[in-house]
Amino acid sequence: PSCFGYPLSIFFIIINEFCERFSYYGMRAVLVLYFKYFLQWDDNLSTAIYHTFVALCYLTPILGAIIADSWLGKFETIVSLSIVYTIGQAVMSVSSVNDLTDHNHDGSPDNVPVHIALSMIGLILIALGTGGIKPCVSAFGGDQFSDDQEKQRSRFFSIFYLSINAGSLLSTIITPILRAQECGIHSKQRCYPLAFGVPAALMAVALIVFIVGSGMYKKVQPQGNVMVQVSKCIGFAIKNRFQHRSKEFPKREHWLDWASEKYDKRLIAQTKMVLKVLFLYIPLPMFWALFDQQGSRWTLQATTMDGNFGAIQIQPDQMQTVNPILIIIMVPVVDGVIYPLIKKCKINFTPLRKITVGMFLASLAFVAAALVQVQIDKTLPVFPTADQSQIKIINLGTNDATIKFEQDLQSVSVMPMQSTGYMTFEASQLKSLNIVSGNYSQTEVTNFPGGDRRTLGVKSTGSAIMTKWLLDNATSKPEEGNNLIRFINNFAEPVNITMGDTSFGTLASFSGSDYKLFPGGRKDEITVIRNSTTCSAVSQPFGFGSAFTIVLNNCSAGKLGVEYSEDIAPNTVHMAWQIPQYFILTCAEVVFSVTGLEFSYSQAPSNMKAVLQAGWLLTVAVGNIIVLIVAGASKLSEQWAEYVLFAALLLAVCIIFAVMAYFYTYVDPNEIEAQIDEEEKNKAKKDGHIYENQAEVDSQM
Fold it and tell me: Which UniProt keywords apply (predicted)?
């Protein structure tokens, strides 16, 4: 059956690919944040495991291709590995349910190793699944066309690529929204089970859709795997060359010619072409090392930025959608506008030059990322070192207050209902401080340990000065764009405080609460119950990544009067500043990755495409391993410096590649094949002659 001149079975394959990519990219988008906030790993471990997983996903396709070509056939490989894949996604989803081990219902898992073990099993199954089907699905699609449908087949590959990007685009938008929801049985948490569960469900859909189409597929029998043959041929050549290494054996033109005792000329010629391309692949992993950090380092960078785009709040992991959106726009623009313009300017923009430009652009993108990082670092608060302490003063009374830090360190005046910023002192020097407010003065002893931040509440009443010390245990910027909020009760009697859905309980008069965590970018309603009367007010927006102390002052006609004191400033660098680096990196991807595969295919015989595909995916895997090595070995404390290091490494590799490309001579595989055909024909003729002559001699006997 056909539809629009395409085999009907194609539509099942495209829907299957869309769901599979949705499932994979959706899971990958929230993965690094899952490691960081749910499994509580630090940035470096999260980045390392993320890249290990991506590397695995690109190593397994080689396995998948061999299984399909030598043993099960593409159809059965896709079905069986999709089942493995679906199970993996489901295990991931279960691993992120914090109620699984959260016996004391405090909202964080009690037995983290259980979650780690489950998620690692899930990730290994996913890597097996996604990698194993990757080389089969597109080739299986290609098998559905008959030889006279060349045009439809190439159109199919474009639609196929589009469905990959559509799947990744939608999932990178949707999964982070699901993650940002609050869900849970006993305590409300970020909704990772939903963020992993939806991809798992879609993978199941992908599998069912694929099986439903089963009756319509053309199923090609497994032909044996060309990768295995090529490896054997190379192995034999090396072994044979080693056995004949002494001087008396004549040299051969190319080391692969040592395989000619066992393998035919055609395979040897094809292998030579393949190796020539694979040699050019050696520098390419460095590009992927930078490219795949979008999902790790760049996402972590976005967590320290401000995601307020007016009407919508962007989650840090959603910034990754910039890439697929730009891809969908850029591929047609580059193909239809930019390349023709370059051609008009009489510049010969060869595939290898395109790849070189792609590498250069990617290193530029990391320079941009480093510049953004420097801006972010400027906005980060300064916390006390181990031998410093920081003090901030809030005047809760109606008179001005003057505070003198003894030993003439400094003195400050604070207006009523105002607060100072944090003042930093050497802990050893700061012994006491003197407060003057109204008609009274009072001395406080301040021998605090180093490394502390404290807030001093001062209030002069009719008869004395009241003071209240609060320990500010927020000694790092709140993660994930969350905000920390606490209250000081400035009423004369105890009050019960609720903000949003979070209860702070009852707070005694003139005392402070602990900090509690709130999602970023929201305004919440503050409700106070005092002597059984209720007062409320809507808070100001707190931005992302801030900490505030809210002073509860008065209540008239149900309206609550509050003052805000900023303890940690919100993220001020806007997420939109990440767009330039994404844009440059996407341009790099368009000229690099699209060209790379086309170039490979044009330089090798058609039956060797599988080997090149494997080699290309291998460069991605190696790239992710490079991230592990560089990030692990560099020990750079500054993130911007690490970005610059990666940019410099890629630039160096880019120059090496340019030199290699300069010496590369393009070949036409069809010509070489034709030449071999010709030789074989002649040989057959020659053999024929010898045979005829022999027959003549025989007949004369």
Answer: Cell membrane, Glycoprotein, Membrane, Peptide transport, Protein transport, Symport, Transmembrane, Transmembrane helix, Transport
Q: 479 and 350 in one domain? A: no
Query: Which of 80 and 187 is assigned the larger pLDDT?
Result: 80
- Which letter, b or e, does each residue of 544-561 get, where b requires 16 or more Cβ atoms within 10 Å of its Cβ? bbbbbbbbbeebeeeebe
Minimum mean pLDDT range among 1-10, 127-136, 276-285, 417-426: 1-10
DSSP β-bridge partners for residue 440: 437
Which of 3-12, 579-588, 606-615, 666-675 is modeled with the greatest confidence?
579-588
Residues 248-283 have pLDDT tens digits of: 777 777 777 777 777 777 778 888 888 888 888 999
Please report which confidence band the pLDDT of residue 317 belongs to, taking 50, 70 and 90 as the band edges. confident
Please indicate, yes or no, whether residues 527 and 467 belong to a single structural domain of this protein.
Answer: yes
- Residue 627's DSSP bridge partners are none
Q: Which residues span the domain enclosing 484?
A: 388-568
**Cα→Cα distances 86→30, 78, 123, 196, Å:** 18, 12, 11, 11
Question: Is residue 657 included in any domain, yes or no?
Answer: yes
pLDDT at 578 (0 to 100): 94
What CATH number does residue 307 fall under?
Answer: 1.20.1250.20
603 lies in the same domain as 670: yes
Which CATH number do you get for residue 448?
2.60.40.2890
Number of domains in the chain: 3
Both 201 and 54 in a single domain? yes
Amino acid occupying residue 285? P
In a domain, 473, yes or no: yes
Please check whether residue 460 lies inside any domain of the structure: yes
pLDDT for 521-556, tens place per residue?
Answer: 778 899 999 888 899 999 988 888 899 999 999 888
Q: Among all chains, which residue has been given the structure tokens 């305590």? A: 187
Rounded distance between C-alpha atoms, residue 447 and residue 429, angstroms: 9
Clarify whether residues 327 and 417 are in a common domain: no
Burial class (CB in 10 A: 0-12, 13-18, 19+), 606: exposed
Q: How far apart are CA 405 and CA 434, in angstroms?
A: 6
Q: What is the 3-state secondary structure of 69-99? A: HHHHCHHHHHHHHHHHHHHHHHHHHHHCCHH
User: Is 698 a domain residue?
Assistant: no
The answer on 393 and 370 residing in a single domain is: no
- Measured CA to CA in angstroms, residue 680 lies from 252, 634, 691 at distances of 21, 56, 16
Judgement on whether residues 411 and 365 belong to the same structural domain of the protein: no
Distances (CA, A) of 361 to 342, 582, 593, 595, 651: 17, 11, 13, 15, 9
Write down the pLDDT at residue 1.
Answer: 66
As a whole number, the mean pLDDT across the chain is: 86
Paired residues of 271 in beta bridges: none
Q: Is the dihedral of CA 290, 612, 273, 339 positive or negative?
A: negative
677, exposed or middle or buried, with CB in 10 Å at 0-12, 13-18, 19+? exposed
Residue 558 phi/psi, 5-degree rounding, is 75, -5
